[in-house]
Amino acid sequence: MKFGFRAPSIKKSISASTKGRIKRSVKGFTNPLYGLNGMGWINNPKKAAYNAVYHRTTIGIRDIAKSIDDSTSSSNISNSSIVNQEADVRIHYETREEMKKIAEQIVAILDSFDIKIKILMVQQNKLYTTYFIQPGSGIRISDIENLKLDIAMHLCVPEIKIVPYPEKGAIGIEIAHKMD
User: Fold this and answer.
1) In CATH, which of 3.80.30.20, 3.90.930.12, 3.40.50.1820, 3.30.980.40 is domain 96-179?
2) Element (H, E) at 163
3) φ and ψ at 158, to 5 degrees?
4) Core-most of 31, 35, 87, 152, by most CB within 10 Å?
5) Where are the alpha helices (DSSP H) in 75-147?
6) How many CA within 13 A on the CB side of residue 98?
7) Cβ-based neighbour number of residue 37 at 10 Å
8) Strand, helix or coil at 170?
9) What is the pLDDT of residues 83-118, one digit of tens each?
10) Phi, psi (rounded to 5 degrees) for 100
């Protein structure tokens, strides 16, 4: 197994950007499951295991550039930091009752700071659960953004993300799933 830096190959880069794109589009038309996450483990488990170990034990130029970008950006939870964790970590998804309880807690927490909100909907995906809230009149996004750490502390989560959704007329409170 290799350890250390991955050497960039210009020949492979050009090949991947020209022939590879055509091959991938042809495979996508012929195999409806091609390109979906986890298909490598089904089609060729030995190669998928090798690649998983290879990418965890070596460092490429993109990894270095990504770490520089991560260090200069804000300290929000990013999707990549959750995805890059070990494979044996299990993600704990909330049940309907848990999501309802957390939504009620969010309303109560913000109400204690005299911020009236209404929960519009809750949306769950692989990495986090988003609680869409509609603030009352006169409430600014920055008012809720300033309470981000207080909300995280009351919900007993390491960090949350406040995201405005102007197309929905809502503010999203994104809470990452707990890792078991």
Assistant:
1) 3.30.980.40
2) strand 160-165
3) -65, -40
4) 152
5) 79-83, 96-112, 141-145
6) 11
7) 7
8) strand
9) 444 444 456 667 888 888 988 999 999 999 999 999
10) -65, -40
